[in-house]
Amino acid sequence: MACILPQTKSAAVNPLKSSQPLGAALAYLGVDGAIPLFHGSQGCTSFALVLFVRHFKEAIPLQTTAMDAVATILGGAGNLEEALLNIKTRAKPKLIGICTTALVETRGENFEGDLVNIKLERAEELAGTEVVLASTPDFDGAIEEGWAKAVTSMIEGITTPGGRPRDLKKIAILPGWHLTVADIELLRETVESFGLKPVILPDVSGSLDGTVPDDRWVPTTYGGTKVEEIRELGTCFQAVAIGEHMRTAAAALQAKTGVPYVLFEQLVGLKAIDRFMTMLAMIAGNPVPPAVRRRRAQLQDALLDGHFYFGGKRIAIAAEPDHLFQLATFFKGMGAEIVAAVSTTGTSCILQKVPADAVQVGDLSDLETMARHAGGDLIVTHSHGRQAAERLGVPLMRVGFPIFDRLGSQHKKTILYEGARNFLFEAANIFQSNCRRPSPEALNPLQDMEAKNDGRQTSFTRH
């Protein structure tokens, strides 16, 4: 069990985490015809927009209530109402997802009450558009918490409550924020290969996969989970949550509709993937498809071929709690040692399961210090860790968010048999390309003894 070390610094030297509202907005972007709305100042929204655009290289429909000094003092209910009506009139979205920021959270406004009043008073103008709200202050949590709160808000605000007739072939999948566009596409294809019908919430693979509409401008998200599918989640036979932070959303779905859920902490280890495939086969009542069996055999061969490059390697990782657990579990399973583990927050219970002696809640400067002290062979974090890797002279493996200095990061598969194999190859190739070949002198077992003898002879000569 890892020891959780709390953050002790009063300021982040090289920030690791991104804010809760950014994570919530990312979840809302996975719904078809949606627009995330930041309830705060324009500056809060612009920073998140820059990160999104640099990471995905796509147009991001992100809006703001544009709180000014007067609204901050007197209250932002008027700005919120005006923003909702303007967005509805101009973009006609199917969903508006409100993400609160530190500016309005610090003032302590009653957002839920304001939204209820706006919906009642402006019911006719807002007809046809679902409006949900997630309380996501910047000063607490990070992407992981914001994503989970947004998914929970959509389930609680849109899904039809009560027991419903269930489709035995329909399953709800609640992916964690750390799954890439390619991961979610792979999830869908795998579930469908068993003859099942997946409903993925949120589905960023449909909205942030680089697809461009033909001959028209779409002011909202284009693709993703449909609002009607969210409303009908109660007809699913089973729900699957991926990542500990999705437990709250899965529990909310079960409490509202009675749909049971199963939680997978990660889908990169062979045992975990086998468990996932076995569950799908049991629900479908069909054997595992030959194509999936072939992918498993390919992963086994890759594990055999690649484990030579991981043995004894010292890995330093900085990521969100569930992503940190997934990455550390993979490297530990390959025979590497986790010498530095840094997370954004210390509230997730998954951190205790990270295969490391301790998990430091901190920033990238903490990662750099720990890696320098322990002598790391590989830095694993997002693009903001590149300066630390350069100073240490250690290669960087880019994962998570944001990755803005490489193309195609969202199209990398990192889970299930195929994704685990690709991730293994990428890490092994980094080790190969940065291999430090020993010199003939270093291979001489008598080198140290000869050096000591030379030193003694020199001292005798002086006397």
TrEMBL record:
Regions annotated as coiled coil: none
Pathway: Cofactor biosynthesis; Fe-Mo cofactor biosynthesis
BP GO terms, sorted: protein-containing complex assembly
Cited SUPFAM superfamilies: Helical backbone' metal receptor
Similarity comment: family membership: Belongs to the NifD/NifK/NifE/NifN family.
PANTHER family on file: LIGHT-INDEPENDENT PROTOCHLOROPHYLLIDE REDUCTASE SUBUNIT B
Described function: This protein may play a role in the biosynthesis of the prosthetic group of nitrogenase (FeMo cofactor).
Name assigned to this protein: Nitrogenase iron-molybdenum cofactor biosynthesis protein NifN
UniProt organism field: Rhizobium tropici
Annotated gene: nifN
